Amino acid sequence: MAFRNASVMEAGNITKFSEKECRLVVAGHTGSGKSAVVNTILGAKICTEGFGAGSVTEQAVLASRPRFGKEIHVVDTPGVFDSRPEMPEAKVRHELARAALLLAPGPHAILLTIAVGQRFSDEEKAVVHKLRVFFGEDSIRHTIVVFTKGDELVRNGVTIEEYLKSAPADLNSLINDVSYRYVVFNNKEPTIKGRDACAKSALDLVEKMARHNRTKHYSSDLFCHAEKQMVACDRETERPFRPKQQGGSSNSLDSLSTVPDDHLIVEISSILESEPSLVEETKVKEERTTAAKDHSALRELMGRLVRHVSRRKVANGNNNSIVESLMSSPFMLGLVPLLQANGDVKNNNN
Ligand SMILES: Nc1nc2c(ncn2[C@@H]2O[C@H](COP(=O)(O)OP(=O)(O)OP(=O)(O)O)[C@@H](O)[C@H]2O)c(=O)[nH]1
Ligand SMILES: [Mg+2]
């Protein structure tokens, strides 16, 4: 569990993360195309997309796939940030706590979906406000707006810049707040190439943002708490910290604060007790990361070996026998299946 322990953060501190891993959360208004964005980013139909007025996604879920040389983890959220959520307050809290656990120790980016053509009304403004309350005020520096239904722009012969020019001041002010970090997605793009281009544009922006922020991922007290709880749970001997339920407001999202809400803390504890599979689910993430780290160490080792062999080759008057004997050695032959599993060497049997 070394990796998990190493990634526990104190509030305000950002620790390193594997360059091979990227955690994202997709949030936005019900029906704004959140699940479709998850599918486009992961290049597979993993989350159920819906048609109609009601919410389709009912639970915060984590979906992962290797993409563009990284292990991408995306949390799809139900409409918990709506100003009038269809689900009861207790369920909203439960889903927010689940999202915090799935994203611990914090997301590299928050993707806020806004459907093109949808009026940027008080509803949408409420989503932005609730996101800031839940993730923390500083989260705006880690937010990227994903305009979905980009095909609407094409159909109307309008560019996104022209669309924004005629958009309400509140939408433009949001775009300003996120330092003009936005991308346009057409999740209905018929070609894989087209959908992959959307995914790549978002992931490139995540990297650019991380470079600009000089941080690896976003954190807040809530994520620190979720992470510590998971570590404690993982150690098995320690029981998750269970804070006393305190009085006060019943609405867990009514003040702008990054200090984890007591209601959410209680919820996090109870989820970890009732859903131990959630820890297992995130362990997969950790194991993959560790495997990716081991793999890059292996590649480094191989690089050194090849350089060594090349030098010996020159020293021995370009005699190929050293290379040949090394390449056919049991050591090298043992490496091949490992590299095949990681996609570095083509498997001729496929
Ligand atoms: N034309 C078009 N339709 C899209 C696009 N993205 C999503 N949709 C459609 O919009 C509808 C809603 O998409 P979802 O991904 O289910 O939206 P959601 O935000 O996950 O919805 P909830 O889970 O109910 O909150 C579905 O019918 C999608 O197929 C897009 O880029 N273009
Ligand atoms: Mg959905």
From TrEMBL:
Keywords: GTP-binding, Nucleotide-binding. Pfam families: AIG1. One of its GO terms (molecular function) is GTP binding. InterPro entries: G_AIG1, GIMA/IAN/Toc, P-loop_NTPase. The keyword Acetylation does not apply. Residues 19-227 form the AIG1-type G domain. The keyword GTP-binding applies. Belongs to the TRAFAC class TrmE-Era-EngA-EngB-Septin-like GTPase superfamily. AIG1/Toc34/Toc159-like paraseptin GTPase family. IAN subfamily. This is AIG1-type G domain-containing protein.
